[in-house]
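Hi there,

I know you've been waiting on this one. I reran it after we fixed the sequence typo, so this is the corrected version. Both the input and the resulting structure follow.
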Amino acid sequence: MRLSFLEPLYKQTGPYASVYLDTSRDSAIDDPDAAVDLRRRHLRNALASEGADQASITAAAAAVGGDTDIPGVHGQAVFTAHGRLALLDELPTPPAHDTAHFGTLPDTMPLIVQHSPEIPYVAVHVHYGGRHSTEATGTVRIEAEIGVWPLTKVTPGHRLHEEIPVTDWLNAAKVLGEELEGHARRVNAEEVVVAGDVWARGILVRRLPVPLRGRVTTVEGAGESQPRRALLEHRLESLFSGRMAEHDRSLLADFLAQRARDGASAEGLIATVSALQRGQVKALFLNNHPESPLRLWIGPEPSQLALTEQELRSYGIQDIREERADAALTRALVDTKAELVVVPQQQLRLHDGVGVLLRYADPNPGA
């Protein structure tokens, strides 16, 4: 996964206030505004207890709950520094518990996990309820969305809406298919998910350009879409659950191949830190453990990270702090434009929960 969405955050200097909270607006909540206001007060108190400055607390509180136009369950990630909003992002899934952190580095891992798996796709819903004949009267109504899962649950992608007389559907389906291919190519769509009337959608699928047709999955029982939510959301949830994006699967395959021949890869926290210090990492693979006790020592610059305070001091670095390992690793990844892939432990258990694919192999690995 590319981490470019975090770059604006690291352009600010710390310390940072990092807030994750539930801002859902669904039928289970009687008064969403009152619920969010209560959470806001609790988070203000939590940040104050962590030593956050008043300006950063006020900036975070002002940003909380501004997503009133998003229906259903969701959350927010809010980052502030020195009284300014550094990054605001919507969470497709509300956090299990609201959290507030104030420290030298932002707490970004929960946000990264929420962005995963970042699967680009096209969703199409073909609405038609008439006689299955192009000589019938009636209209075929098309809804389509080009998005990245799961972010489109809270940040809708580009939408298309078409209403076509059924008498024109055979020709119009070919034109629509070519338009969809253009959109799919721009986002490198992995999947084309098609729902709706079996007859009408079948005509569309058969007229899609061949490269797109090979990526089609048809789904049943889509129902009507909810405004400001992903088209075919519940079907996409089932389809993409537990899946890794093709791009990330390719990186993981490269890592495993290099590891098998002792090539351009490394595993474990010591080797990972060493590679990041040299700017050698192409992609980092992580078994995400939010409760992990692993910590690293850091300096002011992203490449200044080490397992011990003494190592950093030996480089002449004076401003040194101890931080969560995942926060230190993420800062270094963003700085070097390396990628991060969250890998379930049951799929691949990594030593210390971390491994890296290198941009180049060490010329003398035994030295």
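Quick highlight: The radius of gyration is 24 Å.

Best,
R. S.
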